[in-house]
Amino acid sequence: MMWETLHAYLQDQCATIMDLAPVIGEKSHKKDVHKLRVTIKKTRACLDLARQLSNKAFKGKKYIRLLKVLQQAAGALRDLQLQEESLLQYTGNGRRYAPFHLLQKNHAQLAAQQARAIADAFPLAFVKTLPKQLQKKDVKATGAKDAGAYLQQQYAAISLPLGRGPAEKWHDLRKEVKRLHYQLSILQPLFDTSKGLEEMLRFTDEAGSCLGAWHDLLALQQVIRQHMRLLRSEGMTVPAGTDELLKRIAADTRQELQRCKAWIQQKPDVTI
Q1: What is the separation of C-alpha 73 from the centre of its chain, rounded to a whole number of angstroms?
Q2: Is the model's pLDDT at 144 over the cut of 70?
């Protein structure tokens, strides 16, 4: 049942990648860019799960790495789109910050071109073959890890970074939480009566969302500072009020991080 569940899930995700990757680029809809990025993350989480549960009889590491190339291309474009939306929320449609918006759009156009180039060169044929790899006899190895025990172990490992913790540690935590959330979702049909799994899903969903909101704000600060450096290097005037804008975003970033800490500290003690 477990391998059938993984196979069906992987088949659906790979089909979505096959549909969306060929049309990604400058004219692709924002929803398609987001869907492709998330679908690749889910696919990589599924491959990692198969690899772990088969005691690495499934040689999926190379596939995970290869898919990351396409994920990063779609992700760079999606991040720029999100940053433009966030910038608009903080600055409105006024002309004061027009240079920032123009730079953001130019960067998004370049990211779209790069995503299109990478998608064109990406070996999509291998994506179609991925589900078949899970049907091989050597993958369903004897002595495979218990799925419930593995998920429980990964859930128990979620904790706050030690000390103040640099941003990189929080970003790593965000990726771990999102991967676990996808893996819990993948195997949910096997534990459909488990209240503990439902609690884990709820916790990882909210933790991933608040960590994502924090990361987006942190990235927005970095983008604005990059725009400031670029304008100055070109001898152009930085928009008045930029320092105050950065202070507002920084304050919201700290507040969002505190929300993340509070949520993770309240991680429910549940079992599958």
Answers
A1: 12
A2: no
Q: Cα–chain-centroid distance for residue 100?
A: 25
Rg (alpha carbons) of the chain, rounded to whole number: 21
User: Tell me, what's the pLDDT at 142?
Assistant: 46
pLDDT tens digits, 191-218:
988 899 999 999 999 999 999 999 999 9
Whether the full predicted model's pTM is greater than 0.90, yes or no, is yes
194 is written with which tokens? 């488990």
What is the Cα 262 distance to its own chain's centre?
A: 22
Using one digit for the tens of pLDDT, what is the confidence trace for 1-36? 888 999 999 999 999 999 999 988 767 788 999 999
| CB 80 within 8 Å of CB 107 | yes
Are the C-beta atoms of 205 and 177 separated by less than 8 Å? no
Residue 111 in tokens = 């990211």
pLDDT at position 237: 94
Place of tokens 């534990």: 191
